[in-house]
Amino acid sequence: MDTDKDKDAERGGWRCGTCDVPLEPRKTLFRYLGHSVTHEVPCCPRCGRVFIPQELAEGKMEEVEMQLEDK
Ligand SMILES: [Zn+2]
Asked: Residues whose CB is under 5 A from ligand 1 (ion)?
């Protein structure tokens, strides 16, 4: 059955390519243009590798910064 797999994908369920375990969201501190931004990113609970979503790496940080200025 693919049901579990689909559910996994909805949660952004990625697996560590090295350990083959599901990644868990972990709050990670980024520094961006002089701001410190805490963002939850998938992280391997076994080897501790952090996976940066492509959208985050490629410009979504601008939105994060705008949200911060809004508050
Ligand atoms: Zn791992």
From this structure: 16, 18-19, 44, 46-47
19 three-class SS:
coil
Domain extent listing, the chain: 10-70
CB 70 within 8 A of CB 64: no
C-alpha of residue 69 to centroid of ligand 1, in Å: 35
For the stretch 3-42, pLDDT in tens is 555 555 445 568 899 999 999 998 888 787 788 888 888 8
Measure the CA–CA gap between 32 and 38, rounded to whole angstroms. 10
